[in-house]
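User: Fold this one for me? It's MFS transporter.
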Amino acid sequence: MPNAAAPSSDPSTPSSTSALQARNLGLLVAAQALGGASPPIIISLGGLVGQQLSSNPTATTLPVSIYQLGLALSTLPAAWLMQRLGRRWAYVLGAVLGVVSGIVAAQGIAQSDFFTFCLGTALAGFYAACVQSYRFAAADAVAEAHLQAKAISRIMVGGLIAAIIGPQVVIWTRDALPATPFAGSFYSQAALAALALPVVLLLRLPAPKKLAATGTARPLAQIAATPQFIAAAAAGVVSYGLMAFLMTAAPMAMVGCGHSVGEAALGIQWHVLAMFGPSFFTGRLIGRFGKRKITALGLVMIAASGLLAMAGEDLPQFWGSLILLGVGWNFGFIGATAMLTECYTPAERTKVQALNDFLVFGTVAVASFGSGQLLHSVGWNGINLGMQPLVVLVLVVMVWQGRKMNSSLR
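Assistant: Here's what I get for MFS transporter.
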């Protein structure tokens, strides 16, 4: 006589589906924690290694800028691979390139070869493009649309862990090889990517064919012209672009105002913790108040961080503005990502997500190249004043999009 209490092995049953979703989300959090630890290593050491290897003072931040550019340029080919091979195998390739990038960068340091080091940071950009798409994989992994914001927020908790792992790796390993300072940190970057390999191999995400909707997908240009996409992409671009720009410029501004390098580093540490710490509850806030309200709140907080920065040049103003900027980025970027999920059908998701990330991280790359020069030209107060109209413009776009949606429902 069959045992009626035996659990079903059918993956389509609700209990099996829920268990698979929880398993995939847990793996994505772990992958985010390991993969997200690479950028802090590259960003914190790239300029120092550039000073060590380059005879041209204007090229010292080039390795970091090339990393950001590599990330932006990799979003589209990474999305193509995800569409053809599935997310899991694209993520495996990303982690493999993460291993290679760390080894190449470390070899560049060992050989005192600036070009080789820059090649290593550029290769890390593809891995970073895969890591950035984990949040979309989390949204795809849950069946219920109302749970997508919580899933995205949960993945960002992995970013909080990464924000702790990355700087600690730098502290522990930067002098591990005395003959080649900083090379140990980049070998450690490779090791973290190697640890991520078995994690992404365990993923069991929906296959591309199962995600495809019936019918023909709309052209990308048509989707990009919709009010929903314009508002979501604009919010994501401004949230991430301004955060990256100000985060890059802040340490230079603090040192320029007479504060120590250690005080500047502490300010950045608090900023990074503020970026990811709210992820424990951002999804719940979005579920209660809605995607647009939380996104708008994040943008307002980013603008407020600029106003606080202009209030003075003491540590409380610098640190307070960086903390406010981090929380504003969390609300704005997670909210914008959740807004983007409304813009496409399952058949369209990969190309729309890729376009969004190309716009976001292309902006970050441009900001990385120009932050130092603009700080020198207009000063810290000028940068914070100049960002205010951008925030206002995006808020206006969001109001316009909201009215368009309301009028279409009448």
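One thing worth pointing out: Residues 199 and 299 are 34 Å apart (CA to CA).
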